[in-house]
Specification:
Radius of gyration: 19 Å
CATH topology: TIM Barrel
Helix content: 40-55%
Strand content: 5-15%
Largest sheet: 8 strands, parallel, barrel
Shape: globular
Number of strands: 8
CATH class: Alpha Beta
CATH superfamily: Divalent-metal-dependent TIM barrel enzymes
Distance between the termini: 23 Å
CATH architecture: Alpha-Beta Barrel
Strand order of the largest sheet: 1-2-3-4-5-6-7-8
Order of helices and strands: EHEHHEHEHHEHEHHHEHEH
């Protein structure tokens, strides 16, 4: 069985410094060894020198380590941000964060190619967005290569973030430091098998896919040679719910078995929505510990069999 680390997301940005130790203690008490450094924490790094070292050192007091990060993302920090001045600032910030995270031992940095400029005005076309993203990657990838960081592009539902787009970028660079982060929830959302198209929000037909909705036969199969890390969460198949595994329609037996066969996989990350679903640390740890241990067998209650 391939040995990979299991890391947990948590909404640290909403917790005052003096209270951070309490969820850290809870994670440690429930057999957790690894945490994910989140994108809001990356934003905090830009505002607060030394934040990442402070948080890392505090986590270590509870025996918790950090090797994975969700990098800066969304409109200002997507790879394909269009405004030249904004993109140059974004590049500068990505480079700074990659370097600082590398200093504390982080090895994967997940990024979004970006969908905002495709689905909202000015509604740019894919060639323009690819060009923008290429410019960003050309500037941040050398720092990642120098610092031993892997930039992981995350698959999502929209055309600019679809698996085929990720494969296109991988072919342009062919760098061992540019791979992908497989998002199970986004893949289940985009999965073609068994879907009733009438259950999708009409917005997805008209706006997201501009009248030509294209679902995926097998996103995991396409991306498997390049997966360095993954975000695990569940949904109904028609929305990005970020629910706990076993509460949606994802076939976890299939997902976990195949992920373990991915040649470059380093980690699996729990990206269930803590605030959205009012999840406790204990609940997340129990479900994900079972998933990683039994996810490929009927012993895990969330296999949806």
């Amino acid at each position: 069985m391939k040995s990979v680390r299991l890391a947990h997301f948590y909404p640290w940005q909403g917790i005052p410094d003096e209270f951070v130790k309490y969820p850290l203690q809870a994670f440690a008490e429930h057999e957790t060894k690894y945490l994910t450094f989140s994108d809001p924490q990356c934003l905090r790094m830009l505002e607060r020198p030394g934040y990442e070292t402070w948080f890392r050192d505090l986590a270590l007091e509870y025996g918790l380590e950090i090797y994975d990060a969700h990098g800066l993302c969304f409109r200002h920090y997507d790879l394909n941000t269009d405004d030249r001045e904004l993109r140059e600032r974004s590049i500068k910030d990505h480079i700074a964060i990659i370097g600082r995270l590398a200093d504390i031992g982080v090895t994967t940095y997940t990024v979004h190619i970006g969908a905002a400029l495709y689905v909202y005005p000015p509604c740019l076309d894919l060639p323009r967005l690819r060009s923008n993203a290429m410019h960003t990657l050309e500037n941040i990838l050398p720092t990642a290569e120098k610092r031993g960081m892997t930039i992981a592009m995350e698959n999502s539902f929209e055309p600019p973030n679809a698996p085929d787009e990720i494969l296109w970028f991988l072919q342009q660079f062919k760098s061992a430091n540019l791979l992908c982060c497989f998002d199970s929830g986004h893949a289940n959302y985009m999965k073609k098998e068994g879907k009733d198209l009438s259950k999708f929000n009409p917005y997805h037909f008209k706006t997201t896919w501009r009248g030509d909705l294209r679902l995926e036969e097998d996103a995991l199969g396409k991306l498997s040679p390049y997966i360095v890390t993954c975000h695990l969460h569940d949904n109904s198949g028609y929305g990005d719910d970020h629910a706990l595994p076993g509460t949606g329609t994802t076939n976890w037996q299939d997902i976990i078995t195949r992920l373990r066969q991915c040649p470059n996989l380093q980690s699996m990350q729990d990206e269930a929505g803590v605030l959205r679903h009012n999840l406790s640390v204990q609940e997340m740890c129990q479900v994900f510990n079972k998933l990683i241990k039994f996810g490929y067998s009927p012993e895990f209650v969330g296999t949806n069999e």
